[in-house]
């Protein structure tokens, strides 16, 4: 029996579908929506190769604001399903797939449900790199929602 489900969330349709899947399939489980803020995105946003990060603090704040908005929408979605008492959210900073796996190990998670990515061209037949890495390395079962 699944007791604690982790759903990594971002702002994608697949992520929302994964959350909906968990609400329908695991209504009695404790559910954690996790958003990972990847610091590599801070560097990409500045366009600076090495050197000082002129707008690092502002960029990080923007990513944290976005994370809070994503997690708030997830909480609202859980409330719509009457699951707010067993639903929690968390955000962490780190590499996405590595952070999801580490979170799974450290928080007594027994199932991960993650959205797939890559819906155009040849990538349509491939899983997203994050979903694939989590599925390969996770210490618990992983369901990938397409």
- Summarize the amount of helix as a percent range: 40-55%
Task: Note poorly predicted spans.
Answer: 118-126
Q: What Rg is obtained from the alpha carbons, in whole angstroms?
A: 16 Å
- Estimated structural class: alpha/beta
The termini sit apart by: 23 Å
Q: What pattern of helices and strands is seen along the backbone?
A: EHEHHEHEHE
Count of distinct strands:
5
Put simply, the count of helices is 5
Overall average pLDDT? 88
Which percent band covers the strand fraction?
A: 15-25%
Give the overall shape, derived from the CA principal axes. globular
Widest beta sheet: strand line-up: 3-2-1-4-5
Oligomer: single chain
Sketch the major β-sheet. Answer: 5 strands, parallel
Keywords:
146 residues, 5-stranded parallel beta sheet, 45% helix, globular
Folded structure, characterized:
This protein has 146 residues and is an alpha/beta fold. The chain has five helices and five strands, in the order βαβααβαβαβ. The protein has helices at residues 13-25, 40-46, 56-80, 96-106, 129-137, and strands at residues 4-8, 30-37, 87-93, 111-115, 142-145. It has a five-stranded parallel β-sheet, sandwiched between helices. β1 (4-8), α1 (13-25) and β2 form a beta-alpha-beta unit. α2 (40-46) crosses α3 (56-80) and α4 (96-106) packs parallel to α5. The longest helix is centred in the middle third of the chain and has 25 residues, at 56-80. The radius of gyration is 16 Å and the shape is globular.
């Amino acid at each position: 029996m699944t007791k604690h489900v982790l759903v990594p969330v971002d702002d994608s349709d697949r992520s929302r579908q994964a959350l909906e899947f968990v609400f329908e399939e695991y209504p009695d489980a404790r559910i954690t929506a996790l958003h990972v803020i990847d610091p590599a995105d801070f560097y990409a946003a500045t366009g600076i190769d090495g050197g000082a990060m002129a707008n690092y603090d502002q960029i990080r704040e923007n990513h944290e604001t976005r994370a809070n908005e994503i997690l708030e929408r997830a909480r609202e979605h859980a409330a719509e399903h009457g699951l707010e008492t067993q639903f929690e959210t968390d955000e962490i900073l780190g590499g996405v797939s590595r952070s999801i796996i580490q979170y799974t190990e450290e928080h007594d998670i027994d199932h991960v449900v993650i959205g797939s990515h890559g819906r155009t061209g040849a990538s349509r037949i491939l899983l997203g790199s994050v979903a694939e890495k989590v599925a390969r390395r996770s210490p618990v079962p992983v369901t990938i929602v397409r």
